Amino acid sequence: MAFLLLALWMLFSAGLYVAERGADGTTITSYGRALYWGVAAFSTAGIADMPINAAAEVIGGAWIIIGSLLFFGAIVATITAYFLRPLQRPSKQIIDTIEYNLEQLDNLTIEELEMLKDTTDSLIEHMERVKLKQAGKEK
Q: Residue by residue, what is the 3-state secondary structure of the chain?
């Protein structure tokens, strides 16, 4: 995502520079100034020089919208992935947890073993229903 944002920044800055080149009164007189404009305008700091002609304004506006969507979208996606990670436990970790708990069976009371049996039976029934639903959808 960072590579795409960097490439678009450079592309939109080049477009802005080409559109502004030769315009009377423009302050964007080099590619370096266009790159600076791209950062200043994107960061919403309000210190970016205003493009002079309509084509440059359209290019600049498109950069601000697309760049902002990509940048803030990447931040939201990163934060969301961080908080959802515990919900996406790999099967190996689940199996290791079950194996550890099975090793503790000797310490369980009769009532706890009955509850474990009921839970296991419910899990098996649930998985059978899920498999039947999946088989019905595949047909």
A: CHHHHHHHHHHHHHHHHHHHCCCCCCCCCCHHHHHHHHHHHHCCCCCCCCCCCHHHHHHHHHHHHHHHHHHHHHHHHHHHHHHHHHHCCCHHHHHHHHHHHHHCHHHCCHHHHHHHHHHHHHHHHHHHHHHHHHHHHHC
